[in-house]
Amino acid sequence: MINIRKLESELWESADLLRAGSKLTSNQYCMPVLGLIFLRYAFSRFKMVEAEILKDRPKRGGRVMPVEASDFAAKSALFLPKEAQYDYLLNLPKDIASAGMVNKAGHSMNTLGEVVNNAMELIEEQSEQLTGVLPKTYTDFSDDLLNDLLRIFSNSALDEVGGDIVGRIYEYFLNKFAKNIASDDGVFFTPKSLVKMIVNILEPKSGVLLDPACGSGGMFIQSGDFVNQSGMNANSAMTFYGQEKVGYNAQLCLMNMAVHGLTGKIKSGDEANTFYHDAHNLMGKCDYVMANPPFNVDKVKAADCADDKRLSFGNPSINKNNEFGNANYLWISYFYSYLNDKGRAGFVMASSATDSQGKDKDIRQKLVQTGHVDVMISVGNNFFYTKSLPCSLWFFDKTKPQELKDKVLFIDARNYFTVVDRTLNEWSEWQLKNLNAIVWLHRGEKDKYSRLLAEYHEELNSDKAFADILVILQDEETSLRAEAKNAVDDAKKAEKAAKAKKEKYTGKKAKAVQAEYDEKLAELAERITTAKEAVWLYEKFGEGEYADVLGLCKAATIDEIETKGWSLTPGAYVGVAPVEDDGVDFGERMKEIRQELLQLQAESNKLMDTISKNMKELGV
């Protein structure tokens, strides 16, 4: 069984170490490295499909007929000419110039960078979707650096599970580069947990999906995974459309989709500027719209879009320069306009948009009155790599059942997250499922909630009541930690004795013991986290009945929303959760604080007296 997290980390550390030793910036390094991961994926897929073709390959004159590009086209797979195959590049002679190779244009190639550039051009000839997309800047790399990178991604583990693993690694590298580069405030990468939340609530099944600010394509990838996991084929069931003004980001998107085996129609450049263009002519035609648009954009020219048919709720405010001073409600109106009569939309938006005033409020009122605003989720700080501000997730649904048409589900998840590091938070897989469960229960989908409870039971491998699980595991953790400490103490003693006897193998054994117990503790910590999330959910909703939970969720009617001035801020409806008793006697603690202050004041007075005395002695 492959440890994918360990593999991701090892590959990144190896590749980043090479970057650090070169003169390349993360920005220069990002696209070419992702291109090599794509190349590695394409070769894995090529070998797999080639094996399938050769199984039933007819023979002529005793020889198996050679595989051709048309054979791959028949299987909707990418054909790779010999010079674009990964193992060919990996086994080239060290002295490229002496090999006498020429590129597709007939020119001599003298460096490995030229050979890899040529490979990318040959692949683009095989795929209309990839034409002009793959990186061709490999001559910026020294041959030694490029050869080392090729060897890093030749890891045989990448063949064992195929595209799924390579796709994850592509996303992992994209994630890492997003944090390092912070390009355009990281707009080319929407954190995975936000994307998953949107996809999980919209539940795409089949039809047209549009992301009019598609960045690196995360919405397409997660939607494809969701559809495939339901037993359907994403490429057959879905049609993916994207708009992305920044060409660099569109390249990342198309490679990302190709690595995940998806096809789509992505437009970039000025014609893909969603403020001014419906590039695919999809108004009123989409089953799903998903997006993470740039927030609070100003200086959008009103004259170029004020009469746009996508603004059916009216124009946002226009300033004296004949510009939209804030484009948030342009995006919101556009997203709604793309939906067909059964469409659903989910998108990320600046928190300020939930209760902004003026014409924004008028548009928001009209939106709420359609009955199509479905769910609003407040997200806490630090969910983006380069922004610490909170945001909101908005959801529209034109297929809401009649009994819910008058209601909007508000969820305040600002205090519900997992800390990744000092500057980054996310939702864990269990937290995503728990938030999704609130939506299920609101929709009356108790069967999905029951399956989640069963999943918790199976994961924890316990028939105990949920309320007992955490206590049991905490006791188990305490016991194991004690055992681990004893083992480490014994190991340290053994290591000390070994040094005295110059028997160094004992010291290695001590480290092995430590590593073994660290691994056990990590596994146990994961079980404890799972148990905590199970308790969090079960304490609130039991066997599966939706109820408003103070400080967390509230199903508000349109009349209630009107009384709140048409605000869509979850905090305005869910209230504040009661503060848990921390066991501290407030009166006693105030006495202690007062004593501490009096003591500090006395010390301060004493210090001032000493300073005053010293000043007098100095004649000041």
From TrEMBL:
Official protein name in the record: site-specific DNA-methyltransferase (adenine-specific)
Mind listing the GO biological process terms from this record?
DNA restriction-modification system; methylation
* Regions annotated as coiled coil: 477-534
Q: Does the keyword Coiled coil apply?
A: yes
Top enzyme category? transferase
Native species of this protein?
Answer: Schwartzia succinivorans DSM 10502
Keyword line: Coiled coil, Methyltransferase, Restriction system, S-adenosyl-L-methionine, Transferase
Record-linked Pfam families: HsdM_N, N6_Mtase
User: What does the record give as the reaction this protein catalyses?
Assistant: a 2'-deoxyadenosine in DNA + S-adenosyl-L-methionine = an N(6)-methyl-2'-deoxyadenosine in DNA + S-adenosyl-L-homocysteine + H(+)
- Which InterPro entries does the record cross-reference, listed alphabetically? D12N6_MeTrfase_N, DNA_methylase_A-5, SAM-dependent_MTases_sf, T1MK-like_N_sf, Type-I_RE_MTase_Subunit
Q: A single Gene Ontology molecular function, please? A: site-specific DNA-methyltransferase (adenine-specific) activity
Record's family? Belongs to the N(4)/N(6)-methyltransferase family.
Q: Which ranges carry the DNA methylase adenine-specific domain?
A: 163-452
Every copy of the N6 adenine-specific DNA methyltransferase N-terminal domain together lies at 7-151
Write down the EC number. 2.1.1.72
